[in-house]
Write a structure and sequence with these properties.
It comes from Diversispora eburnea. This protein is mainly alpha-helical. The protein is built from three helices and no strands.
């Protein structure tokens, strides 16, 4: 019973003092400080994350600037190559035009050459025909001379050698005519 009495006094005094001196006040102050500390820690964590994100953003911007510079360099190289390509295409076009001119000149020269060959062949045929006629005339004259030499001077040795030489010339002329 004594125990029950002590417990009752404790509860009564507690309730009485809690009206005048609340024990919860100190408890609430520590809860508020704890919440403030938690909020400060959360704020520090958030500030650290913001700082990290800003650094990552700066790193990404630096990488983007490097990539943009590289893209710009590649575009300049591409423009140079396109300019070189245009120059080469112009050279190719000029060479094709020169090649066409040379092909035309070659065809023209081949035509002139064919015409000259035809004219040469016609001239050779004419010369051969004229030569055959001249040769036949010369052979006929030689034969006449031989006949005349044979009629009058058979006794002389000079006229015989002359006749033999003329006969040999006539034979050579005849073989030349036959070969043609």
């Amino acid at each position: 019973m004594l125990l029950l009495f002590i417990h009752g006094i404790y509860v009564y005094t507690k309730n009485l003092f809690s009206c005048f001196f609340p024990f919860n006040f100190t408890l609430k102050i520590s809860e508020i400080e704890l919440e403030r500390n938690v909020h400060r820690a959360a704020q520090v964590i958030l500030e650290n994350r913001v700082h990290k994100l800003q650094q990552e953003n700066q790193n990404k911007q630096a990488k983007q600037a490097i990539l943009e510079n590289h893209i710009h360099e590649l575009q300049q190289e591409n423009q140079k190559r396109q300019a070189e390509k245009v120059i080469l295409e112009n050279h190719i076009h000029k060479f094709q035009q020169e090649n066409e001119k040379l092909i035309f000149e070659k065809a023209k020269l081949e035509l002139e050459n064919a015409m000259l060959i035809a004219a040469q062949k016609a001239l050779e045929d004419k010369i051969a025909t004229d030569a055959d006629a001249d040769l036949k005339l010369t052979v006929a004259k030689m034969i006449e001379e031989i006949k005349e030499n044979c009629k009058g001077s058979l006794g002389r040795s000079q006229s015989i050698t002359k006749i033999i030489k003329q006969k040999q010339m006539v034979r050579k002329s005849i073989t030349t005519i036959n070969l043609k």
